[in-house]
C-alpha cells in the first residue's frame, strides 16, 4: 500500500473512533450491539467489504445493516459474499481484529499486513471494488449506512452503492444476481418471485381457489412493508392482511415477530380472539425468518408451526415431485440443528429422507445443504431455504424438453424448476418462504390445522445459564454432545435416562454471554424437569456468575 492509500484510510478512520470498552466478535450473524456504539464497527466493515471485493475482483460484495430480531435500539452489520452467502469464515478473524483495533494507526497497520498477506491489489489500475449497501427499517440505519459508505470509499478504487431499505434476503439475492450477470434490481426480485409463484399456482391440479385469508405479522419491520409492495404491484390477487407494519406506532420486534412468537409461543400484539382458527404468519425484523401459527382458543397461547414444520411441508412437496419423476439420481437431503424437535426428525426419517445435522447458525446449515442436489435446511426458529445445485437445475431443464406438455412428469419438473426460482438460493427469505408455503398448502388442499397434524411436537424446554466463561463448554460439531468440561456429558446422559424419549444438550451461545440448555421429553413436566436438572449441572461444573 502506498502513502496516499494509507492517508486515505487514516483520514476516514479518524472520523470514527472506537468507543471505549467495546469488544466485538463477528459471531453467527455479523456484529451486533447498541446502535450508538456501532459507527466505527460499520465503517470498518465497509473497509473490509471493499477489500473482499478487490480480493475476489471482479465481484460485488453486500453489506447489510440490521440487527434482525434484536430490540430497536440495537443494530448490526454483516457481509454477503458474491454468491449471496455469508462472508467466508476464513475472513472472520480479520473482521474481529479490525473491529477491535484501538486506534486508527493500529487499524491501518492491521489492514496493511492483511492486504500483503492476501495479496490484494489496491488501485493499481486493475478491477475496482464495488459494495452494495442495504439497511433494515431501524432509525439508526441511515447514519450507520453513511459510515459504511465512507469506509467503503476510503479504499481507493472502491465504490459504495446505496440500495436503501431492504430485507436482508433481498440484499443477498441482489448481490448474487449481480455477480451472475442477471438483472439485480428490487423489481427483478419481485418479478422473479411473482413469475415462479404464478407458475406454481397454475400447476395445481385441482382446487385453484384463491385460498382462505392469511394474516401477516410484519414485526413492525421492513418485511411487512416489502410484502405490501409485492401485493400492491405484482400479486394483487393474493389475500393477505398485513398487521404490525410499523406505521401504527408499534415498536420493531417488541412483543411481535417470528422470534417472539417462536420463543414465547403466544400471539403477537395485534392478534386476538377474532383470529381464532385463522392462518397467521410472523416475520422477524429483517424478514429472513418466518413461522406460522394459529389460535385454537381465545387465549393467548398458539399452535406454532415452526421452521421444522415448514421444512417438513417443503420436504413432502419436493419428494412428491421427485417420486413422479422416479428420479433415483437426485440426492435429496434435509439439514437440521440439534434444536429440531425430535418428532420432526422422526417424521422426516419416516419419509425415507436423509437427515443430517449441522451446528447452529445459518452458514453451517447452508454449507451442508449445498452438498445435496436438492438440500432443504431450516432452523427451528424459522430460518431456512431449499438449495438446488446448478447441475441439477440444468438437468431438469434439459429433461423437460423431452417431455410432453401437461404430462405428470413435465408438471413435476416444472414445479421443481419454479421452486428453485421462487425460493431464495442465497439465504432464508421470509417473503419467498411464505409464498412457497401458500403454494404447497393449496397444492395439497390443506388448512393450517391439517398441516399442523403432520406430527405432534415433543414438549421442550430451553434454559439460559449465565456462567463466568461460556467458552469452557466445547461441543461436538453437531452440538449434540459436550466434550468439555470433562465428565459433564456423562452426567447429562444420567439425567436423560430418567425420562421417556428424553433428549438434552448444552452449547455456548454465539450471540449472548450464556450457555444454552435444550431439553425435550414426552410431557412438558418431564421436559421442564430435565431442562432444570441439566441447567443445574452446568452451574455445578462451570460455576454461576
Ligand atoms: C443467529 C443466527 C441464527 C442462530 C442464532 C443462534 C444467522 C443469520 N443467524 O441469529 O441462525 O439460530 O444466531 O443464536 O446465522 P445463539 O448462538 O445465541 O443461540
Ligand atoms: Zn433475521
Report on this model:
The chain has a 5-stranded mixed beta sheet with strand order 1-3-2-4-5, sandwiched between helices. The mean pLDDT is 95. It has helices at residues 3-14, 39-55, 92-100, 104-117, 141-153, 168-179, 186-202, 222-233, 258-264, 307-325, 342-350, 362-369, 390-401, 408-422, 430-444, 448-452, 488-496, 524-542; strands at 31-34, 60-65, 74-80, 129-135, 158-165, 214-217, 240-243, 279-283, 290-294, 303-305, 332-336, 354-357, 374-378, 384-388, 460-465, 474-475, 482-484, 503-508, 515-520. With 545 residues, it is an alpha/beta fold. It is globular, with a radius of gyration of 24 Å. It folds into 4 domains: 3-165, Alpha-D-Glucose-1,6-Bisphosphate, subunit A, domain 3 (Alpha-D-Glucose-1,6-Bisphosphate, Chain A, domain 3); 200-303, Alpha-D-Glucose-1,6-Bisphosphate, Chain A, domain 3 (3-Layer(aba) Sandwich); 307-429, Alpha-D-Glucose-1,6-Bisphosphate, subunit A, domain 3 (Alpha-D-Glucose-1,6-Bisphosphate, Chain A, domain 3); 460-542, TATA-Binding Protein. The longest helix has 19 residues, at 307-325. It binds 2-acetamido-2-deoxy-6-O-phosphono-alpha-D-glucopyranose (16G) and zinc ion. 2-acetamido-2-deoxy-6-O-phosphono-alpha-D-glucopyranose (16G) is lined by residues 28-29, 360-362, 379, 381, 383, 509-512, 516.
